[in-house]
Design goal:
With 159 residues, this protein is mainly alpha-helical. The chain is 63% helix and 0% strand.
Amino acid sequence: MDLGTNPSNQASNTQGTMPDPYATNPQPSGVSKPMIAGILLILAGLLGLFTWLSVLTVPSSAIDQALTGQVLTGYENLEITAEMIQSILLVCGAIGCIFSILALLGGIVSLKRKLWPLALLGSILGLFTVGPMLVSSVLSLVALILLILARKEFNPVSS
């Protein structure tokens, strides 16, 4: 006897005795894509902020010590000073901190399920926060994919 073709069996299945595994709209679980993306973006932002703040605090004496005795073949006439490198690190560190803060902000609005474009911008800029061993970039990439898949779960912007 084929149970799948009998309409009375299908009706009794929808009365709550057994959940239908082929239902088109299953009950949502407690964890959603925007929540996971928000947590990942907050982690990426914090790791990136920690990394870039540590770059900003590198003393010029440590850079000078690293440069001592270092000469690249073919670039003997090029004078690179510790102050030059520190100014480059300062600019990169400031940009990295801004990107990390925007990733944090994107994570917060993703948790609230508001402002999908800002959450998306935070995840895109979070790709450039680098973090320790590129962890922040990977977390931001996963969050970006989740945010793209979860666009309909965000509240529309009221104007």
